[in-house]
Amino acid sequence: MASQEAARKDWDTYFMDIAYMASTRSRCPRRHVGAVLVQGKNLMGTAYNGAPSGSPDCSEEGCMIVEEYELQHQSGQEQVIKKQRCIRTIHAEQNLLLFTDRIHREGSTVYVTDQPCWTCANMLANSGVKEIVYHRAYKKDSEKVVRLMEQKGILFRSLHHYSPPPQTVMDVQA
């Protein structure tokens, strides 16, 4: 019995493993992202990033990359930051919100393989979740996302020492 308990995963690892398994459904060549919604210890939904259902995805027709410029203030200096993103895909967090009910999100936790981008963070901030747990950092939006979560009182934490299941890992591009 003691060896079974030693091998048993903690809840964070268990749900993050499920998020990584969901990410394997993505066909995005740049980044596979998975997300799960958990209420208490009950799994309420899973999602991954990809093109809208029935539409060609990036692996079929290529990424639809757009460039954006953002003015950031760092150390009293204004700096223009260039960002690239694909607009063909719906992010995992967005799909999770589209395919789960508000009642299941109230007071829930979202586990997501990657730190949410600014758009997803905004959507999650209004979704009713109380906690967001992620594994990989997304440095492009990190500081402002952390500030937003603090303002909204949403617990926002990274699983720094987490190791995803080997069959779910992909090389992440910018």
TrEMBL record:
<feature type="binding site">
    <location>
        <position position="120"/>
    </location>
    <ligand>
        <name>Zn(2+)</name>
    </ligand>
</feature>
<keyword id="KW-0862">Zinc</keyword>
<dbReference type="GO" id="GO:0005737">
    <property type="term" value="C:cytoplasm"/>
</dbReference>
<dbReference type="InterPro" id="IPR016473">
    <property type="entry name" value="dCMP_deaminase"/>
</dbReference>
<dbReference type="Pfam" id="PF00383">
    <property type="entry name" value="dCMP_cyt_deam_1"/>
</dbReference>
<dbReference type="InterPro" id="IPR016193">
    <property type="entry name" value="Cytidine_deaminase-like"/>
</dbReference>
<dbReference type="InterPro" id="IPR016192">
    <property type="entry name" value="APOBEC/CMP_deaminase_Zn-bd"/>
</dbReference>
<dbReference type="GO" id="GO:0008270">
    <property type="term" value="F:zinc ion binding"/>
</dbReference>
<dbReference type="InterPro" id="IPR015517">
    <property type="entry name" value="dCMP_deaminase-rel"/>
</dbReference>
<dbReference type="GO" id="GO:0004132">
    <property type="term" value="F:dCMP deaminase activity"/>
</dbReference>
<feature type="domain" description="CMP/dCMP-type deaminase">
    <location>
        <begin position="10"/>
        <end position="159"/>
    </location>
</feature>
<keyword id="KW-0479">Metal-binding</keyword>
<dbReference type="InterPro" id="IPR002125">
    <property type="entry name" value="CMP_dCMP_dom"/>
</dbReference>
<comment type="similarity">
    <text>Belongs to the cytidine and deoxycytidylate deaminase family.</text>
</comment>
<dbReference type="GO" id="GO:0006220">
    <property type="term" value="P:pyrimidine nucleotide metabolic process"/>
</dbReference>
<keyword id="KW-0378">Hydrolase</keyword>
<protein>
    <submittedName>
        <fullName>dCMP deaminase family protein</fullName>
    </submittedName>
</protein>
<dbReference type="InterPro" id="IPR035105">
    <property type="entry name" value="Deoxycytidylate_deaminase_dom"/>
</dbReference>
<feature type="binding site">
    <location>
        <position position="117"/>
    </location>
    <ligand>
        <name>Zn(2+)</name>
    </ligand>
</feature>
<feature type="active site" description="Proton donor">
    <location>
        <position position="93"/>
    </location>
</feature>
<feature type="binding site">
    <location>
        <position position="91"/>
    </location>
    <ligand>
        <name>Zn(2+)</name>
    </ligand>
</feature>
